[in-house]
Amino acid sequence: MQRGREQLGICEFEESESSYGAGDALGCRAAAYFSCASEDCGNIILCETHNETCPACGLTFCSSPNARLHDCFYVHQTEGQCENSLIAPLLAQLEQKLALPSQEALREFIKSDGDGFGNPLPKEVPADFALAALCLTGRIENIPFSARFEQENAQRQRRTARQREARACHRLGLNITATRARYNRVGLYKRSTVLIASGALITCAFSGSPHYAQQSELLRLIGIHKQEDYVRDRLSALENARPQLYNLLLKRAESIAQRDSGKADTLESALFS
Question: For the whole model, what pTM was predicted?
Answer without folding.
Answer: 0.76
